[in-house]
Amino acid sequence: MRNLLRSAAVVSAVAAATLPALAARPDVTRMTCPQAQEFIRKHSPVVVTTGRHTYDMYFAEAYSCTGPYEAQRNYVVTRDGVECMIGYTCVPGMWD
């Protein structure tokens, strides 16, 4: 029983130490344009910080949006001062 409690305590401590790192969102405003584009391409879909109080989910490919949603190119000012097209977000489509 003591070994079980000790194991549970170790697992809890490791989880508590790991969760804050997993919760942090990558900030594309601190990357150069090519770095941000490559990050989105490698980790799509991914939620990233795009400003002081803003974030969104980005996709590398326009076809990632399904159902009533359509892809919209999204631009962010990156560390190198470029208004950079980093990927796509999904927005509600316009239906007639």
The tally of beta strands, per DSSP, is 4
Q: What sequence of helices (H) and strands (E) makes up the elements?
A: HHEEEE
Tally of individual helices:
2
Bin the helical content. 25-40%
Radius of gyration: 19 Å
First-last Cα distance? 65 Å
Brief descriptors of the model:
single chain; about 100 residues; alpha+beta; two-stranded antiparallel ribbon; 4 strands; elongated
Describe, in short, the structure shown:
The chain has 96 residues and is α+β, with helices and mostly antiparallel strands.
Write up this protein:
The chain has helices at 2-23, 33-43, and strands at 46-49, 55-58, 69-77, 83-92. The protein is elongated, with a radius of gyration of 19 Å. Strands 1-2 form a two-stranded antiparallel ribbon. Strands 3-4 form a two-stranded antiparallel ribbon. The chain has a domain at 26-92. It contains two helices and four strands; from the N terminus they run ααββββ. It has 96 residues and is α+β, with helices and mostly antiparallel strands.
